[in-house]
Amino acid sequence: LQWRDSEEVAAVFIHSSSEKAFCAGGDIRFFYDVGTATPMGDSALLEDFFSEEYALNHLIHFYPKPYVALLNGVVMGGGMGIAQAGPACRLRIVTERTKMAMPEVNIGLFPDVGGSYFLARSPGEIGTYLGMTGEIINAADALYADLADVYIPTAALPALMDLLRTSSATDIRELIRAFAAP
Predict the structure, then answer these.
(1) How many Cβ atoms are within 10 Å of 24's Cβ, its own excluded?
(2) 112 annotated active-site
(3) 27, 73, 77, 78: the active-site residue
(4) Which residues does the chain have with pLDDT short of 70?
(5) Is 26 one of the annotated active-site residues of the chain?
(6) pLDDT at site 138
(7) Is residue 114 a contact partner of residue 57, using CB atoms and an 8 Å limit?
(8) What is the pLDDT of residue 143?
């Protein structure tokens, strides 16, 4: 929220400091731990979790500044929510390490965190297929399914980060697209 109104912040660039990238089952583990540690019917912690997660997705979706997500690794479930939100402001970067999915469907949940929104916008019935099966896709598939915008090899990421640190470009998304272009 502070970045949204700050004139010093031109864009938001998210990336993971973990090899797992965005969301690798930590939320499901949290649900299990809360469910086994609290009395039946005491769902306040779970309700808080979902309220905060969905509020974040909503904030990102309507963010007024460019929002760039580097999806270099596992991007599943809630990670898809923060990667796919904000169609008017976003740019999604994939690498050869990208693995995307909505695996919550494999345990009987629905594709939440905006899944019904962004999967419905994939060409043909790709989004329906991904939302029904939890199938894991790679970078090329994500680009084809309109779940990513540009491909940059992992080996080129240090050069991209240097460029972002030193550039005075007014449109970070165009700068990244030009960097990714062959």
Answers:
(1) 21
(2) yes
(3) 78
(4) 24-25, 40-42
(5) yes
(6) 98
(7) yes
(8) 98
